TrEMBL record:
This is Agmatine deiminase family protein. Keywords: Hydrolase. The keyword Hydrolase applies. The keyword Aminoacyl-tRNA synthetase does not apply. Pfam families: PAD_porph (PF04371).
Length: 347
């Protein structure tokens, strides 16, 4: 395929992260979220580099020292001062496409999930990192509002997404389904879009990002959230989503191999009691490993076992994400993979 949206399992140069500012939304939980991010960096650096944008020079110095103390080799770490509004790199980071063997990073518009939160600095972060010489390939600015967590690619022309997000008038109000499919085909090279009409998680600010619900593990396998508690308010919508997934077909007409992921016990915010979006679908695929969010729940081990079966030959690494869901995201939301050839070697 001459033009394609790369899948997450494509060989990677690095994983990109955005470090929280001391005065940002993470301030009340800063030590906890930093500990989680540090665990992620330590795990990822065993396999590849980690690019981290940091809010200021003081944070850069502190983080370089801290990660060195944790055993992260200096040549696996790239720290760049570039301030941000928040830490959700999946949604403000670049999206990689390959065209005739040449890599391009697409810089889409990020509006804080349809204007829910301030996102001015996040929206310019990719351009500022480009100006700093971080990326080795070309970076192209786009006019479409699109977040990385809203789409998932099989690498063979099929894109999985949700109607609730991509067709939401708070993103691209002039784009109906047909127009959106034409745009995705033109810009990402996809030939098929699989739309999920059902599925949501309480506490999710993204309008049902697909990376919280269902993910490609390979071109023929989709892992998805399944709720087995009929008394849970999520049950009807997730059961309907499961039926949709069973009805989907690959480009060759064959059904997908479906991998249900377990349903953890409800997690609630300790301050005001609202439900938090705990999901095992928010895993991250890197070179040689898969990082899986865990929540101190009995279902954690079942999720790890299920994903180990989906990714033979890759290490399965649990990451405690109880702190991450306090701000309504999880592990995958914090990251963006940078495919091989995208990162400048001199950084």
């Amino acid at each position: 395929m001459a033009h394609r949206l790369l899948p997450e399992w494509h060989p990677q140069d690095a994983v990109q992260l955005t470090w929280p500012a001391p005065t940002g939304d993470w301030a009340p939980l800063l030590e906890r979220i930093e500990a989680t991010l540090e665990a992620m960096v330590v795990a990822i650096a065993r396999y590849q580099r980690v690019l981290i944008s940091v809010p200021d020079a003081a944070t850069r110095r502190h983080l370089a020292h801290r990660l060195a103390c944790l055993g992260v080799a200096a040549d696996r770490l790239i720290l760049v001062v570039a301030d941000s509004d928040d830490t959700w790199t999946r949604d403000h980071g670049p999206i990689a496409v390959e065209h005739d063997g040449k890599l391009t990073l697409l810089d889409y518009v990020f509006t804080g999930w349809g204007g829910k939160f301030e996102a001015g600095r996040d929206n310019t972060l990719t351009r500022r990192l480009t100006d700093a010489g971080v990326y080795a390939c070309s970076v192209s600015s786009r006019e479409l509002v699109l977040e990385g967590g809203a789409i998932d690619s099989d690498g063979e022309g099929t894109l999985l997404t949700t109607e609730a997000c991509l067709l939401n008038p708070n993103r691209n109000p002039t784009q109906n389904r047909d127009a959106m499919e034409r745009t995705l085909q033109a810009e990402l090279g996809v030939t098929r879009v699989l739309w999920l009409a059902n599925g949501h998680l309480e506490g999710d600010d993204t309008d049902s990002h697909v990376d919280t619900l269902a993910r490609f593990c390979d071109p023929g396998t989709i892992a998805y959230v399944r709720c087995d508690d009929e008394a849970d308010p999520h049950y009807p919508a997730l059961a309907a989503m499961e039926a949709e997934l069973k009805a989907l077909r690959r480009a060759d007409g064959e059904p997908y191999r479906l991998l249900p992921l377990p349903w953890p016990r409800p997690c609630f915010d300790p301050e005001d009691g609202h439900r938090l979006p705990a999901t095992y679908a928010n895993f991250l695929i890197i070179n040689g490993a898969v990082l899986v969010p865990t929540y101190g729940d009995a279902a954690d081990s079942r999720a790890l076992t299920a994903l180990a079966g989906a990714f033979p030959g890759r290490d399965i690494i649990p990451i405690d994400c109880l702190s991450v869901i306090r701000q309504h995201g999880s592990l995958h939301c914090l990251t963006m993979q940078l495919p091989k050839g995208s990162l400048a070697t001199h950084t």
